[in-house]
């Protein structure tokens, strides 16, 4: 057996032993941030186009800053899709704190007008909504955090008497 043939198993052994430590470099035991839809504000409502402003809060439960690169979202109101899209606003959430951001949306509820009117007639009855999407975080190594939040809105809070 030559010198090179004897060295190959030793080099291979050292590579496997040292690569085991590399996996811990990328191990991430941080908690996922939480995203909350705080408010839906009606900006303008016409027959064929409605504009809303969505207000979000991102909670960072970790000891390090969180860079947010964007948000892909789908919002269902009761059983129909209210809006979907992407927001590409970059911001940083400090450790153990929260940050707020707004997303303007435009939609056409014409095809669901009958259902919306029925829901809005009952001003005190809550309307369920569902927020789904992906929060894109990180700078060099991205981490997509999947969202699935449920809540309710009360029509009387948005419609003046």
UniProtKB/TrEMBL annotation:
Name of a matching Pfam family: LEA_2
BP terms from Gene Ontology: response to desiccation
Protein name: Water stress and hypersensitive response domain-containing protein
Key words of the record: Membrane, Transmembrane, Transmembrane helix
TM ranges: 7-27
Water stress and hypersensitive response domain residues: 35-154
Organism (species): Pseudomonas fluorescens HK44
Matches recorded under InterPro entries: LEA_2, WHy-dom
